[in-house]
């Protein structure tokens, strides 16, 4: 039987159309912009515009270390009205539960990853949800796979948004700055966690993730748990429970390639039946209270495990305190794998 397509009505208000266009741009950037930039760079080499690629390659060589040295944030890009339309599409809200002292540096653990970390990008790479007003004096930086900083042109775009490579050196560069004021945001579960992003699930990969805890201890950066309610509701994903052949393939691809390949789908641009546009589901991201961390450049396993356990408890408590406000059943709990 043919699938019935649910087309969008023709009289949709202009504001909603602009919201859809803004999110389309975000999805396009996430899925296709990097490979297009790579192809463009190579294509130009074989045209009369070859000098553009040669000059960019020269600049690239000189600028190679910039991503790992705090990047190159552009306030104009981060404050563009475009991001307000992205915010309103879902809509999104950033909730503050405690003050963060701007004289300190912080490691914010973002959970869950979701399919596209849409909430993390909008909250911490733009000013659409008011991060700088809620936490004055703090600059936020979101960690992203180093692979994407090897894509010409694309690397400059993501740096302007406040993205830096997700390696220890890049995070350490910011966390060791004197005077504080730096908030490094880490999607702790990483790309692998995206494979568990199904509507109605509350799964985070955390029990073996201790690198960000050690990083915070080495630099005396306070830890802040962050939970994004609604992040897993944006897309449907083909069933891939652990132990199935599909999950086995996805896990191995993630191991060897560094990126996960969830088979996801949601709605389209002009119809609601299928496509890669996310559903209009509310995202409320709650920033928890800071966990004070004393600088310890060589923590013992016992010290590391104790702080990791405290972090998991604080994250679980944050989830429990706010879940009822977001339609999560009382008997549902955060599942840490």
Automatic annotation (TrEMBL):
Compartments where found: Endoplasmic reticulum membrane
Gene Ontology molecular function, alphabetical: 2-acylglycerol O-acyltransferase activity; diacylglycerol O-acyltransferase activity
EC number: 2.3.1.-
Pfam families assigned to the protein according to its UniProt record, in alphabetical order: DAGAT
GO cellular component, one term: endoplasmic reticulum membrane
UniProt KW keywords: Acyltransferase, Endoplasmic reticulum, Lipid biosynthesis, Lipid metabolism, Membrane, Transferase, Transmembrane, Transmembrane helix
Residue ranges crossing the lipid bilayer per the database entry: 21-46
Entry membrane topology: Multi-pass membrane protein
GO biological process: diacylglycerol biosynthetic process; response to yeast; triglyceride biosynthetic process
InterPro entries: DAGAT
Family the entry assigns: Belongs to the diacylglycerol acyltransferase family.
Annotated protein name in UniProt: Acyltransferase
Lineage: Eukaryota, Metazoa, Chordata, Craniata, Vertebrata
């Amino acid at each position: 039987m043919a699938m019935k397509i649910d087309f969008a009505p023709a009289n949709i208000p202009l504001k909603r159309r602009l919201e859809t266009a803004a999110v389309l741009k975000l999805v396009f950037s996430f899925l296709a912009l990097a490979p297009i930039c790579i192809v463009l760079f190579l294509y130009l080499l074989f045209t009369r515009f070859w000098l553009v690629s040669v000059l960019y390659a020269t600049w690239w060589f000189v600028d190679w270390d910039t991503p790992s040295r705090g990047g190159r944030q552009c306030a104009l890009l981060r404050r563009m009205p475009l991001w307000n339309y992205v915010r309103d599409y879902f809509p999104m809200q950033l909730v503050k539960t405690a003050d963060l002292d701007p004289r300190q540096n912080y490691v914010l653990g973002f959970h869950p990853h979701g399919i596209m970390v849409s909430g993390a990008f909008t909250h911490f790479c733009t000013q659409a949800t008011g991060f700088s007003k809620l936490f004055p004096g703090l600059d936020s930086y979101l960690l992203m796979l180093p692979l994407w900083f090897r894509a010409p042109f694309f690397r400059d775009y993501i740096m302007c948004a406040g993205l830096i490579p997700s390696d220890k050196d890049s995070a350490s560069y910011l966390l060791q700055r004197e005077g504080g004021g730096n908030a490094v945001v880490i999607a702790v579960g990483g790309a692998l966690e995206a494979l568990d992003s199904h509507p109605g699930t509350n799964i985070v990969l955390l029990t073996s993730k201790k690198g960000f805890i050690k990083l915070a201890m080495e630099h005396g950066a306070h830890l802040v748990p962050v939970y994004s309610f609604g992040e897993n509701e944006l897309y449907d994903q083909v069933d891939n429970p652990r132990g199935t052949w599909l999950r086995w393939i996805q896990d191995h691809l993630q191991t060897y390639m560094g990126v996960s390949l969830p088979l996801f789908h949601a709605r389209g641009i002009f119809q609601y039946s299928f496509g890669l546009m996310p559903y209009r589901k509310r995202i409320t991201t709650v920033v928890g209270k800071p966990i004070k961390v004393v600088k310890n450049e060589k923590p013992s396993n016992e010290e590391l495990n104790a702080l990791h356990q405290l972090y998991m408890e604080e994250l679980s408590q944050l989830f429990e305190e706010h879940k009822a406000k977001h339609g999560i059943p009382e008997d549902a709990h955060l599942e840490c794998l």
